[in-house]
Amino acid sequence: MAKGNKCPDCGHPMYAEREDHQPMGTWMHYKFRSGTCKCTEKMFEAKR
Question: Distance (Å, rounded) from C-alpha 16 to C-alpha 31?
Fold first, then answer.
């Protein structure tokens, strides 16, 4: 499950749009849509 992320521009929570599972962790594709803010971000979350 995603740890979650905040939009770097406006600071609001982003939702996990897609998860790409790998042996060492997961690539998370986060997305946030609000009026003028349409941020997307891809980050790697290592397994614990």
Answer: 6
Q: Would you call 18 helix, strand, or coil by DSSP?
A: strand
Compute the CA torsion angle 2, 4, 8, 9 (nearest 10 deg): 110
- Dump pLDDT digits (tens) for 1-48: 567 788 877 888 888 889 999 999 999 998 876 767 778 889 898 876
Asked whether 42 and 27 are in contact (CB, 8 A), the reply is yes
CA 28 – CA 34 distance, rounded (Å): 20
Cα torsion through 10, 15, 20, 21, rounded to 10: 110
pLDDT at residue 22 in the model: 92
Beta bridge partners of 25: 22, 46
